[in-house]
Structure formats: structure tokens, C-alpha cells
Amino acid sequence: MNPPRTVTVYILSALLLRISNGFSSQPAAAEQLHPPVTIHSFPVGVTPYALTYDGANIWTANFGSWDVTKLRASDGTVQGTFSVGGINPSNLTFDGANIWTTNEGTNTVTKLRASDGAQLGIFPVGTAPVGIAYDGANLWVSNFGDNTVTELRASDGAVLGTLPAGRVPWGVIFDGADIWIGSNSGSRVRKLRSSDGKLIATLEPGGTEHRGFAFDGSTMWIASSSNSIVTAVRARDGWIQGTFPVGVAPWGVAFDGAQVWTANYFGSSVTVLRAADGGDPKTFSVEAAPTGIIYDGTSIWVACSGSNTVNKITLKSP
Asked: Which of 31, 108, 115, 149 is the most buried (most CB within 10 A)?
């Protein structure tokens, strides 16, 4: 296995046109030098698509090798690689004690104990499950093969319901009260009440292929892969606050407490925006085909599915 590599890069601001409806900011200055970024690269399994964080470790869902990799967040040391007992794990989440993966090729989800990777159960869901979110008690799984979302009880994996989720459902996130589901084909995002699964809103945030979401406490940030934009939507009422261009084909989205990050699949890049107003955009290169992205409280982690690595990004002081 190759050792981790470290790269230091300087970021140049791009002059980006922003379409704003609620946020106001001045365009970013072109060629403005920003503090350097340190990027550490760590090898993982084959085709890592998604990431989750358990409070101490980063986990990757390795679509091509049918397993997950656990890395210590402090230094990237691999703590273990664990089979999911299914085919093509495409996403994963943490429920406070366990890791759950969606196994796209076998229409199941797997529950692994986070402390040691022990397999605790494999549970059937809908056809071709991809997205997954935890609401504090239950798991919500988007099944793009049959246009449904499955709700499972986290304690034992029991299916509590299967609901319509729109055309080709993909990204899923919980905002503290409701479940948001994006489409990998259409333009609509659905919002379900987590207490009973009732559809409470259907939104059109702009663009199509809504694979990635991030919630900043009041605003939902939604990536459109086909349109290379991210849209800020006020969570309580669906008001569109602004639409901002990012890199090519954004997939995952993350919030670091002040900024929003997108992993841009075809651009092999990451874009970071100021969460307050979408301003000060910066885009810089990472390794091949980035998909998942997550913040661990200190650094941003990116799953680079084309290079079988994860990149750990740390902003250095000026």
C-alpha cells in the first residue's frame, strides 16, 4: 500500500457570477491569493464514494471492493477494512454507535459496530438503495431503482414503512425535523416529515441531479450535478436564498461551521463558499473524481473515487 502524500497548494479566487435572491455580497476578486491549503492523500478501498464520521474516525464506502475503510481522523492511519456482506456499498451514515451502509447491488443495508467493524445485521430495503440518513431513531434509505424511500428502526433494522420518493431518488439528509430527498434525474426535491413520513413540500431549487446536501442550521445547501451549481434554500419554508456556480458536476456537499464545500466530480476539484452569503468562492484541485465530502471539526475529507484515495484538506493560517 502506498504511503500518504502531502501537497501544499495556494488558492486563486475565480471570478464567478452569482445569482442571488436573499443573499447579498460583492463578486470575489479575481486572482486574490488566499492562505495555503495542506492536502494529505490516503489510500483506501476501490472506488470510495461516500464518507461518514464517528467522532474519531472517518469511514469510506468502497463501491468497487464491497467493503468500508476506517481511518483515524487525527492522522489518517487505517484502523481496519471491513466487508459489508453486500455488493456495491454506495453510501453510509453513523447512528451514534454503528455504521450503516447502503448496498446498491443487493438491495440491502448493513449495520456494522463502529468500535470494531463487526457485522450486526443485513436488512432488505428497496431496489438499488443509494442515499441514507439517520434521524436520531430511524434510518431513511433512498431506493433509486423503485422510486421509494424506506424507513428502518435503527435498534433492530425493522422496516417501518416504504414511501414514494419521486423520480430516481438519490441524496438524503435530515435537518433536525424533516427528511430531504433529492432526485438523480428530475428537478424536484421532496421534504418529508420524519415523524410520520408525510410529504410536506416539493421544491425546485434549480438544476437537476441533486445528489448532495448540507445543512448549516437554518439553510439547506443543495448541489445540482448537471448544472454545476449549489443552491441555498431556507429550510423552514423553502425560500431560495441564492444560487451559486461551483466546479464541474458537484456531488457531495459539506458545512464546516462557516463555509460550504462541494466535491466536483468531473472537475476533480473542491469549491468552498462563504455560508453567510455564498461569497468569496475558491476552487482548487484534489485527486480524481471526488464524490463524498465531510467535515470532522478540524479538516475537510474528500472521497476521490477515481484514485481510490481520500484527501484530508486543512486550511493553514495566513
From this structure: 149
C-alpha cell at 240: 431560495
Yes or no: say if 48 and 40 are a contact pair by the CB < 8 Å rule: no
Taken in order of first residue, the domains within the chain and their CATH numbers are 16-315 (2.130.10.10)
Place of cell 468497487: 64
Mean pLDDT across the chain: 90
Going by their DSSP bridges, the two strands 37-43 and 5-9 should be labelled as antiparallel
Q: What is the pTM of this model?
A: 0.91
CA distance 139 to 225: 25
pLDDT digits (tens, 9 = 90+) for 212-235: 999 999 999 999 999 999 999 999
Which residue(s) pair with 173 in the sheet? Answer: 180
Residue 135: left if φ>0, alpha if ψ -120 to 50, beta else—which one? alpha
CA distance 14 to 27: 10
Tell me how far apart the alpha carbons of residues 257 and 273 are, in angstroms, rounded to a whole number.
12
Higher pLDDT, 33 or 265: 265
DSSP string, 155-218: TT--EEEEEE--SSEEEEEE-SSEEEEEESSSS-EEEEETTT--EEEEE--SSS----EEE-SS
User: Tens digit of pLDDT for each residue in 84-125?
Assistant: 999 999 999 999 999 999 999 999 999 999 999 999 999 999
Residue 59: phi and psi, rounded to 5, are -115, 140
Q: Using one digit for the tens of pLDDT, what is the confidence trace for 48-64?
A: 999 999 999 999 999 99
